């Protein structure tokens, strides 16, 4: 929601449209994202430049994020290298695509990135409460993703999809 807000207040809107979605049923089988990509894409997937998934980014040490799908788009590594330095955040390449909602887009040949800060002891428990969110880390990750998404939305170059072999 913070990223949607950041884009909504820009005076100079990006050249490409940005679509913000929330999905249901990820843990039960990617129900929401699979429905969208398979049954009801509101915008043609052939016109989708990239998909960025933020899954569990609130619990980190303020300077680290894991990113999957980097090899699925030709521009991703270069942009991540540039913006991670600017945002003072270290990213680790999670080999492959991982198992979150971006898999639904990857399976339809859409370049995708998945951001995640890893599991924690409160994962899927009622003890995973608001005050445990690392706001500094979440803001850093959101800034990184904002710069990445804005660049992808403004540049004439588009990431070329590539099947990941790693």
CATH homologous group name: Zn peptidases
CATH topology: Aminopeptidase
Continuous helix count: 6
**What do the pLDDT scores average to?**
86
What would the principal axes of the Cα set say about the shape? globular
The radius of gyration computed from the alpha-carbon positions, rounded to a whole number of angstroms, is 15 Å
Number of domains: 1
- End-to-end Cα distance: 32 Å
Can you walk me through this structure?
- The protein starts with a helix and ends in a 12-residue tail after the last helix.
- It has helices at residues 2-8, 26-29, 31-38, 76-86, 102-106, 135-154; strands at 51-54, 64-68, 90-94, 112-116.
- A 4-stranded mixed beta sheet has the order 1-4-2-3.
- The protein has a single domain (2-9, 18-154), classed as Zn peptidases (Aminopeptidase).
- The model has no long low-confidence stretch (mean pLDDT 86).
- Strand 2, helix 4 and strand 3 (90-94) form a beta-alpha-beta unit.
- Helix 4 (76-86) crosses helix 6 (135-154).
- It is an alpha/beta fold.
Set down the secondary structure blueprint.
Blueprint: H1 2-8, H2 26-29, H3 31-38, E1 51-54, E2 64-68, H4 76-86, E3 90-94, H5 102-106, E4 112-116, H6 135-154
Parallel strand pairs: 1-4, 2-3
Antiparallel strand pairs: 2-4
Helix pairs in contact: 1-6, 4-6
Describe the structure concisely:
The chain has six helices and four strands.
Keywords, separated by commas or semicolons:
166 residues; alpha/beta; Aminopeptidase; four-stranded mixed β-sheet
